[in-house]
Write a structure and sequence with these properties.
Blueprint lengths: L1 H10 L15 H13 L10 H8 L14 H5 L3 H6 L11 E7 L6 H10 L5 E4 L1 H6 L1 H9 L3 E4 L12 H19 L11 E2 L8 H9 L3 E2 L14 H10 L5 E6 L6 H16 L3 E2 L6
Parallel strand pairs: 1-2, 1-6, 1-7, 2-3, 4-5
Helix pairs in contact: 6-12, 8-9, 11-12
Length: about 290
Amino acid sequence: LVQELHRRLASVGWLGYKDPDHDLYTEETRKAVVAFQLSQGLHPSGEVDEATWELLGDPNPPLATPTPLPSAIDVMGMEGLAELLNLPTYTEDGRPIVYLTFDDGPSEYTQQVLDLLARYDARATFFVVGEQVEFFPGALRMELQAGHTVGNHSYDHASLAGISQEAFLFQIGQTEQAIVNAAGDLSTHENNARYLRPPYGLADDTALLYAAALGYDIVLWDVDPQDWRRPGTRAISDYILSNIFPGVVVLMHDGGGDCTQSVQALATVLSELSAQHYAFHRIVLP
């Protein structure tokens, strides 16, 4: 089925997608699916639902389609996002650093993630969805109390590409307010990090200008195991561990659906990388 997906994507000329001739749903495949969904006026989930599959067989003329932001590895090679953001890649005593990040929470799985991080004295960065913060304000407070960084991932996980300034301000501003409300007395200048991770990694030039005007830094990722697809605990952890390097920014999820596999994979990643003397830091931009 995935091979047929590759063939259909490759047949859509304006996507510029080349059939990789394998049966893996890679990050490049996901980006192509998102671009196709946007071109057809569909919700850009990156998941191939019935409507997406049918239109891939007989697509409509494309709407204006934003280009997904390139990953740090696309731009910098294996120096990755840390090089772009001027983040340290080693501790002062020479230990390599990993930056674990979690999207789409908080949720009922966030506490399990926090417990695992605490077990390994690990710090991480949580890119939260505003409406989820409103549902789970206590989880956000616990993230801050544990010394983690909280960033903005929009209010309802809408694509920020191609939207009006009013809509952009709503997505970001409502999430800001939800964070401040949940944080309460923990809402300090240090905790109010203005880091934005656009949903689906999508933002056009206009959205980037809106973000800059609000004082936001865009933070993407280096390694995405696509744990949201629930490919199996071993597949998630193996992908992360096989793509690790000093300063790597790893994307995982603590919300957006069943995160059981993500939590289980995180336990393996923390154990294996701790044994390799990696340190787990939150993102704090200079």
